[in-house]
Amino acid sequence: MKRSSPARPSNAKPPAPAPQSAAAGGQALAVLARIETLWSSLGPVGQRIASFIANHPREVVHMSVSEVAERTGSSEGSVVGLCKNLGATGFQQVKIALAQEIVRPVQFIHEDLDPQDTSAAVIRKIFQSNIQTLHDTQASLDAAALERAVKLLREAERIEIYGIGSSATIAEDAHYRMLRIGLNAKVVVDSHVQAICASLTDERVAVLTISHSGSTHETVTATRLAKEAGASTVCITNFGKSPLQAFADVVLFTMARETHFRTEAMTSRLAQLAIIDVLIACLALSDYDTAVRTLRQTFDVLSIKRY
C-alpha cells in the first residue's frame, strides 16, 4: 500500500516573497516542499523524521537535534543525514528555514484536479500551483551555484543546449535568449544529434542540459558524453536525486510538483523558464556593454520583421 506524504499545516495563506536565509550564504530552503519531493526516496527512518518535521514545524524550531532524535526514535546522525538530503548544511539551517516558513506561511498545493471540478476550480488550482512552484523554486535556487553556472557559460567559447520532449521548447528559448545577448550558442533537441555533438565537445565548450526528471535516457547520455569529452556541464532539473546530476558540474534546481492529471505540467516549464530568465540576466550583466550593444543590433535586425 502506497504511503501518503506527510500532512501539512492547515493554516496556510497565499505565499509571500521568501526571505533570504542567513545560513548557507543567504540561500533559503523550502524545507516542507523538499520533504514532499524527496518523500518516496527516503527510508523508513528518514520518513519518520521527515513526517515529524513536516507535522510539527513550530516545535522543531525550538528543539535540539537530540530532542528530535528522541521524539522520532532515531539517532542524531539520522536527523542530520536527513537535513543534508534536503540540501541543508545541517539541522540548524533547517530550523532557520522552518522559522521563516512559519513567519511567512507557504500555501501547500497538494490537491489534484477532479473530474467534477468546475472551470473556476480548475483555474484556482492550476494558478495556485504555478504560483507556488515559482515561490518554492525562488526559495531553493542557490545563488552560489548560479554564479558558478554563469562563470562556466561566460568563459566557454561555445555553448550547447540540450533538451528532449517538453524541455526542448525551454532549450530553444534559452538558445534564442543567448543569441540576443551575443553568446555563441546552439541548441540540439534531436537525441541522435545530441549524442554526436556531445561526443565532439571539448574543454572549450559548456553544455546546458534541461530535464525536469533528470532521468531521460537521451539527455543523461548526451550530458555524460559531453562531460567525458571535457566540456563543462550545467543542468537545470527538479529537486531530488536523479542520474543526470552525476555528470553535472553545476545543478540548478526547480521545485515543481506533478500530480495525476498534471505530469509534465506547465508548472515545471514555468520554473525552468524562470531559472533561464535569471541565468540570461546574470550573463548579460556579466558583460553589460556587449549585451546591450548586441540587443540593440538584434532589435534593429528583427525590426524588419514587424509592420
Comma- or semicolon-separated keywords:
307 residues, alpha/beta, 5-stranded parallel beta sheet, 13 helices, 53% helix, disordered N terminus
> Approximately how much helix is present in the residues?
40-55%
Radius of gyration: 21 Å
How are the strands of the largest sheet arranged?
2-1-3-4-5
- If helices are DSSP runs of H or I spanning 4 or more residues, what is the number of helices? 13
> How many strands, what sense, and barrel or not for the largest sheet?
5 strands, parallel
Mean pLDDT score: 83
Briefly characterize the structure.
With 307 residues, the chain is an alpha/beta fold.
SSE order and pairing:
Elements lengths: L30 H8 L5 H12 L1 H4 L4 H8 L3 H10 L5 H13 L15 H22 L2 H13 L2 E6 L2 H15 L4 E4 L2 H9 L5 E6 L6 H13 L2 E7 L11 E5 L11 H21 L1 H16 L4
Parallel strand pairs: 1-2, 1-3, 3-4, 4-5
Helix pairs in contact: 2-4, 2-5, 4-5, 7-12, 8-12, 9-12, 10-11, 12-13
